């Protein structure tokens, strides 16, 4: 089965074609980062309008890349949620209509399931069951995964998501949007140990997270380090970025180890934008090696939003005979535990 995947839930227009036999055939991504950068964050209405401009040309591009015509598609998967409703509607409308015109099945895919399954696109995919750490701009969750659609939420952030915390820390440090990669870059030049930030909730039992206190701590540190003219040195900014990143990474690592132990599992899948963070990858790998557990993640471009993960997830469900009716589905909020098992 050859499935077209359409991702338009936020600020990237991602398209891909996944073949159930041959794997990924084509993939294209248009990032709206420049469009939103001057506002310091995603402007939903601008995002929707840009998806309208980009989706159809990118569909032609991936078909071209795969050497296929529309008629050779066997199904269409589009992100149905969670995300910005206007942005979701664009992909849902185009995906559902195109499938109707071509008389092929369509399916709405859960964005976080897409992220969670993205490591399956790599050479050494994880076997079920495993623990998934989902860390994106909107979510921080630990999930027990027993198969596709067999998800049990073990813990989640009670306030800000990890990616959101990175984005807010970036703003406080005078960096651009999206903040995660910028904070990581600045942290590379920082001195370990000059500032020590709290590790939120690690002393609490359980697997929930909280990152809003870290945000306040970052803000207070930045304010107290300013001189009489309100200036702060580049080295101090780097040292703060380093301490912030360390606190987030250590908190995530501690909770991942705790989740594996609680569930008696030895495989951890890390997915979502923040899983592209090098320090998180290195620290998690080192920590899990000590307890004989393995870490799996996607290549960096498949950690952040992309069409390949949606084409893959949709393909698994369509191959299993699942499909949607003719309605156009967009759910800004959509608990992953509601998904049907495959
Ligand atoms: O998964 P994603 O592309 O979109 C959502 O579904 O939210 O995640 C985007 C988030 C942003 O908050 C961004 O700052 C963060 O992932 N991010 C990173 C890195 N790359 C992206 N955070 C830390 N380090 C990175 N290298
Ligand atoms: Zn995402």
Main sheet properties: 5 strands, mixed
Strand order of the largest sheet: 3-2-1-4-5
* CA-CA gap between termini: 16 Å
Reading the helices and strands in chain order gives EEEHHEHEHEEEHHHHEHEHH
- Number of DSSP strands? 10
Estimate the strand proportion.
Answer: 15-25%
Ligands: 5'-O-[(R)-(carboxyoxy)(hydroxy)phosphoryl]adenosine, zinc ion
Looking at the structure, what is the overall shape? globular
The averaged pLDDT comes out at 97
Give short descriptive properties of this protein.
342 residues, alpha/beta, five-stranded mixed beta sheet, 43% helix, binds 5'-O-[(R)-(carboxyoxy)(hydroxy)phosphoryl]adenosine, binds zinc ion
Explain this structure.
It is a single chain. The protein has 342 residues and is an alpha/beta fold. Helix content is 43%, strand content 19%. The protein has helices spanning 33-37, 44-66, 85-102, 111-117, 162-172, 179-188, 212-224, 234-263, 278-290, 300-303, 307-319, and strands spanning 2-7, 12-19, 23-31, 75-81, 106-110, 130-135, 140-147, 150-156, 267-271, 294-297. The strands form two sheets. Strands 3-2-1-4-5 form a five-stranded mixed sheet, sandwiched between helices. It has a five-stranded mixed sheet with strand order 8-7-6-9-10, with helices on both faces. A hairpin with a 3-residue loop joins β2 and β3. α2 (44-66) packs parallel to α3. The longest helix has 30 residues, at 234-263. The radius of gyration is 20 Å and the shape is globular. It starts with a strand and ends in a 23-residue tail after the last helix. The mean pLDDT is 97. The structure holds 5'-O-[(R)-(carboxyoxy)(hydroxy)phosphoryl]adenosine and zinc ion. 5'-O-[(R)-(carboxyoxy)(hydroxy)phosphoryl]adenosine binds at residues 10, 136-138, 163-164, 166-167, 178-181, 184, 272-274, 276-277, 304-305.
